[in-house]
Amino acid sequence: MKNILITAGGTSEPVDSVRSITNSGTGRLGSLTAEEFAKLNSVGSVYYICSKTALKPAHDKIRIITVESVDDLKNAVESLLHSERIDVVVHSMAVSDYRVRSVSTIDRVEEALGGGVELEKALDETDLRKSGEKLSSKMGAPLLLLEQTPKILPCFRKLAPNAVIIGFKLLSNVSRERLFEVAKKLMTDNGCDYVLANDSAEISGDSHIGYLLGKDGRTKRLETKQEIARSLAGVITEDNI
Fold first, then answer.
1. What residues form DSSP beta bridges with 15?
2. Count of structural domains, the chain
């Protein structure tokens, strides 16, 4: 019996104790994909790692694990891959590229700079979040210093060397040639077996144009979320792309 890992929805990075920066990932495609895998007799368990607000699939084989930040996601992925044998990974989650490193104001930063402190250090030293409390709504225009989050996709090949790995790449208003070029690089750089390439300009409601690229060079055009979900589940059968 094969075990499947699917990530879905979008991560959320805290600004303070009540505010956060997030994205528009809903988990709809991930949820459909989880249900398609769960229908297969050859599948034992589907581990569905998602945000709290993501759509949740319903099936006895599906085990739901909720996360918020990229760090939460990384910890959940590493814990699962260390404890369970995973045969297929579908990484459809919209992962935040940046998280908040510090929050300050122009006045506080200018004061620190006046003391001869470098800008980056000034932003860190004047971080208003050190108290752990909600930021005041009267502080004027806040300055947010962002930093990159750890990449999740490379973890899968490292921790599950024998798994079939499906990555996702979403661009916006680019040529087909450019979309495929970026998707193929993602595949090569991260040891993926497949990449689902999307352009946000071709996604609207139930219509979702996607291109499933295989490392053998084959490409399959898909036109709805349901069709994409079935094709992704099909990677563990003989009649995939």
1. none
2. 2
The pLDDT of residue 240 is above 60: no
Rounded mean pLDDT, 82-88: 96
Tokens 């993602």: give the residue: 186
Residue 241 pLDDT: 40
Give the whole-angstrom CA distance, residue 203 versus residue 172: 10
- Strand-strand pairing, 207-214 and 219-224: antiparallel
104 with 80, same domain? no
Q: Which amino acid is at 84?
A: E
Q: Which of 148, 168, 188 is the last residue of a domain?
A: 148
pLDDT at 239: 47
Minimum mean pLDDT range among 2-6, 110-114, 136-140, 172-176: 136-140
Please tell me the pTM assigned to this model.
Answer: 0.90
**Which has more confidence, 118 or 7?**
7
Cβ contact 8:92 at 8 Å? yes
| C-beta neighbour count of 107 within 10 angstroms | 11
Instruction: With beta carbons less than 8 A apart as the criterion, state whether 198 and 208 touch.
Output: yes
Which tokens in the block code for residue 42? 């050859």
Same domain, 139 and 79: no
Angle at alpha carbon of residue 210, lines to 57 and 199, rounded to 5°: 110
Burial of 231 (0-12, 13-18, 19+ CB in 10 A): buried
The SS3 call for residue 240 is coil
Phi, psi of 101 (to 5 degrees): -90, -40
Name the E strands within 120-180. Answer: 142-148, 164-171
